[in-house]
Amino acid sequence: MPPPTLKENDHIVQRGETLSAIAKRYGTDYRKLAELNNISPPYSLHVGQRLVVSRTVVAQATPETPPPPVPAAPLPSTPPQKRLALLIGNADYKHYQRLDNPVHDAEDFAKLLRQLGFEVMLKTNLQRDEMKTAIRAFRNRLRQQKGVGLFYFAGHGTMYNQQNYLIPLGTSRDLMQEWQAAGSVQISALQDWKQELVSEAINAEYVLTLMKSAKNQVNLLVLDACRNLPFTVRGLRGKMMLPGGLSAMTTDSGTLIAYAASPGQVGRDGEGRNSPYMKQLKYWLNLPNMRIVDVLRQVRLGVLQETNGAQEPDYDDKLKAPFYLYR
């Protein structure tokens, strides 16, 4: 359901809200909203903060209606592209909250991709060094094939300094326990966490850089890795909110990045075998002759409906030509 129309041109920040999520609610860009309110990166907000949403009356938002699937183009006469995927599902965290779905998500996605002609490298519950080894091996294989590369990660992930970090097993510090116990964390704990995050987690840009260095034709990056909540941080100037979720990444030509949740949003574990995102992805990828962007539009609508609007998948498409996973 669309959010109700506001009678005033401002918004009061609630616990857990991020600038990106607020901007999406009112149909504007988070950078414009930040400029309007003189908010600088990393766009931190505090509970009760009043934001000017627009200098004019805010119109009621309407949900996106995806266009109908484009009819299938004639099959190419050239040989089919070689397809290689690396899927990582991390669930058995010891210092972060254990997750129920990522291993199942990766296993089910692997089965589907094999049916779609992919050679699949499936990895689960990896430490940092194991993740880096798998990613480098994936890059080396891509260099040889020069075809389609797909990287998928399910597990804990978070944003710091506009960079996205994928959390391996064995990462030493999780602020979740302190946040759940006290409702906020000390700024000193946050500083320690930042240092450990940069040194122990995997920067998603590292993955994308290695994929681009392989110079293959198509790069697909799918991140179901925004399952960390935002934190309220106690410091010398009162309280501030550290956003959860992931940040939008820069996408180069020939690349598509798909996110299980919009920038700054928190994704969810599902109640059954799969996360809401993977549940929808599995359904729509089983339908032939749909461009990948049409699949992702339908996935977005399905997840929005399943989560009652709490989670909205997003993607950034810079592919050079229409791309089909299932023809």
In short:
This protein is an alpha/beta fold and 327 residues long.
For the structure shown, list the relevant keywords.
327 residues; alpha/beta; 3-stranded antiparallel sheet; Rossmann fold
Explain this structure.
This protein is 31% helix and 20% strand. By secondary structure, it is α/β, with parallel strands linked by helices. It has two domains: 10-52, LysM domain (Membrane-bound Lytic Murein Transglycosylase D, Chain A, Roll), CATH 3.10.350.10; 83-317, Rossmann fold. The strands form four sheets. A six-stranded mixed sheet has the order 4-3-5-10-13-14, sandwiched between helices. Strands 6-7-9 form a three-stranded antiparallel sheet. The chain has a three-stranded mixed sheet with strand order 8-11-12. Helix 3 runs parallel beside helix 8 and helix 8 (276-285) crosses helix 9. The longest helix is centred in the middle third of the chain and has 18 residues, at 128-145. The two termini are 33 Å apart. Residues 1-8, 56-65, 72-79, 178-185 and 228-243 have low confidence and may be disordered.
Number of helices: 9
| Category from helices, strands and their pairing | alpha/beta
Helical residue percent band: 25-40%
How many domains? The number is 2
The description of the largest β-sheet is: 6 strands, mixed
> Alpha-carbon distance between the termini?
33 Å
How big is the Rg?
Answer: 20 Å
N-to-C series of helices and strands: EHHEEHEHEEEHEHEHEEEEHHE
Mean pLDDT: 77
CATH architecture of the largest domain: 3-Layer(aba) Sandwich
CATH class category label of the largest domain = Alpha Beta
Shape, principal axes of CA atoms: globular
Order of strands across the main sheet: 4-3-5-10-13-14
Percentage of residues in DSSP E strands: 15-25%
Number of strands: 14
CATH topology-level fold name of the largest domain: Rossmann fold
Name the poorly predicted regions.
Answer: 1-8, 56-65, 72-79, 178-185, 228-243
